[in-house]
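User:
Hi there, any thoughts?
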Amino acid sequence: MTKGPFERALVRKGKRALKVARLALNAGDNDSAVSRSYYAMFDFAQAALLRAGVTEDKLPRTHNGVIEAFRRQAVQSGQIDRQLATQLSRTESLRIRADYTGTEIELSEAKEVVQNAELFVQTVERVFGLDKPSLSKDYENPTSKDDKVSEPAVAVTEIEIKSVELEPNSLEEIRRQARENWLQLRQRTVSDAKGAGHSKDVDRGAKEDHSQSIEDDVDE
C-alpha cells in the first residue's frame, strides 16, 4: 500500500515535532517539549489510522476522537500495547496544562514525556509500516517507450528484447551474452546494407542496359 499525500505530510510533521520537542527539552523549555511531544504522537496516530484504511474524510475531527479511534484500531487489534497507547491521552492532558494554564511542567516529567513520545512514534511507525518508502514516486515520471535507444534504421526484433532471467549468472556470462547479441545485431545490419547495395547495382545495370537499347534503336 502506498502512502497518500496527507499521510506522508503527517509523518513529516510528526518527526519535525518530535525533533523540536527534544531541542526544547535541552533548552530548558519543558512546556514546549511536552506540547511538541503530544503533537508528534497525534500526527502519527492519524497517519496510522489512514494506513489502517480510514479515509481522510472519515478521520475524527477532534483530539479525543482521534485518540479513541486510535485506541480501538491499535489496541483492540493487538497491534500496540495498551500501556503505550494510553500515553497518547496522558500526554494530551499534560499538553493542555502546558499550553493553557500557568502551571509549569517539571523537568523530570518533561523528560519522561519526550522519551515516551519517541517510543510511541518509533513503535507506531514500525507496526503500521509508516517507515516504508512510498511507491507512488515510481509513477510520477514514467519512462516513455520512445526514450529507448536503438541503432538508426534498424528494427528491433525478438533477439534484442529477450527477457533476462533474474538468476545468479556470472559476470562473464552476462558479458558473453551481451556481446553475442551485439554481434548478431551488427551482422544483420551489415547484411541489410549489402542487400541494399546489391539492389542498387542491379538497378544501375538495368538502367545502363535500357540506355544502350535506346541508343541502338537510334542508330538503326
Remarks:
- The chain has two domains: 5-137, 144-220.
- Confidence is low (pLDDT under 50) at residues 134-171, 210-220.
